[in-house]
Amino acid sequence: MNTQRKTNLSLKSGSKSQRSGAKGERRAALYLRLHGYRIIERNWLFHHKEIDIIARKGDNLVFVEVKSRKNMNGVPPQFSVTSEKRRNLIIASRMYIAKHNIQRTVFRYDIIEVDLSKKLPFSGINHYINAFEG
User: Fold this and answer.
1) CATH number assigned to the domain with residue range 6-132, chosen from the 4 options 3.40.1350.10, 3.40.50.150, 3.30.450.20, 3.20.20.30
2) 3-class DSSP state for residue 131?
3) What's the rounded Cα separation, in Å, for the pair 111 and 64?
4) Among 93, 13, 14, 101, which Cα is nearest to 53's?
5) How much is the pLDDT for 9?
6) What is the distance between the terminal CA atoms of the chain, rounded to a whole angstrom?
7) pLDDT-derived band of residue 68, with 50, 70 and 90 as boundaries?
């Protein structure tokens, strides 16, 4: 019987960028847990619109976009999340809220940047809280 989790499988299959993305999302989820967040969902999909991580901390429901990089000399993550990606994340988050009948809660959109060139799992992580409005 195969009991591997979906996230472990994604690290072994898929393109190089998909494997890097999955590794970055694992590090981001661990970082969030260690900072008091409860992970509710990972890779939640609504019509090809994906939310990398949905987490809760206190009264806040947080929708997180994870950007993994092997070289941090590129475009800063808050600029690499395009207006189309932001729009898709907002649409997906609204559908998540509606589907789960979530009322009277504060929600926000964060971006977590993960530098995959760093070997330690907690180094090279930048968390941009409330990175954009929805």
Assistant:
1) 3.40.1350.10
2) strand
3) 6
4) 93
5) 40
6) 43
7) confident
Taking only the tens place, the pLDDT of each residue in 14-41 is: 666 667 778 889 999 999 999 999 999 9
Q: What is the pTM of this model?
A: 0.82
Per-residue pLDDT, averaged over 42-62, amounts to 94
Q: What is the mean pLDDT of residues 4-22?
A: 55
Instruction: Report the sign of the C-alpha dihedral through residues 63, 107, 115, 74, in that order.
Output: positive
Q: Which amino acid is at 109?
A: Y
Residues 96-123 as b or e (16 or more Cβ within 10 Å = b): beeeeeeeeeebbbbbbbbbbeeeeeee
Q: Which two tokens stand for residue 6?
A: 């979906």
Positive or negative: CA dihedral 53, 129, 71, 123: negative
